Amino acid sequence: MDKQIIPIINAARSGDVTLLQSLVTSETNINSNDEKGYTPLIIACYNNQLGAANWLIDHGANVNATDFGGNTALMGACFKGHEDIVELLIANGADLNRQHGNGGTALMFAAIFGRHDILSILLKHGADKTLLDSRGLSVFDLVVQQGNEVALEILECYV
């Protein structure tokens, strides 16, 4: 782990763009991971820090970087329900169909956690509904298990 990344991650968490500007130099690996595998962008997105996320992307942050569990910034934003962050990541090339260590996708996170607006955003941008997690379950299976009829209706609109 690059110990220089810790203050950058803390600035990303709080959304302090001015501090990010002072900490990040041309020698900084903006995609370094902390001890849990988080990158500054993953942390900014998870904490709904749109300005920091945008600044990090503009300065070379990899929108598809993963933590040690295979989770991306997009997955975190879907889990937390941060629509503006989801839109920013998609606009900057986030892989909608990346699967984490257990095969889950951003679409599955949105569906499981009842993020219906984000579910629609992902589907509108072409997220794959046919992917299966490590248990062999699709996003359809997951919403049926939960009895989430709204998510099921949204998924069926994008057949």
Automatic annotation (TrEMBL):
Signal peptide (residue range): none
Alphabetized UniProt keyword annotations: ANK repeat, Repeat
Chain segments annotated as transmembrane: none
SMART domains: ANK
Gene3D superfamilies named among the record's database cross-references: Ankyrin repeat-containing domain
Key word Protein transport present: no
Key word Repeat present: yes
A Pfam family reported for this protein in Swiss-Prot or TrEMBL: Ank
Coiled coil: none
Residue stretches of each ANK repeat: 36-68, 69-101, 102-134
Protein name, UniProt field: Ankyrin repeat domain-containing protein
UniProt source species: Mucilaginibacter agri
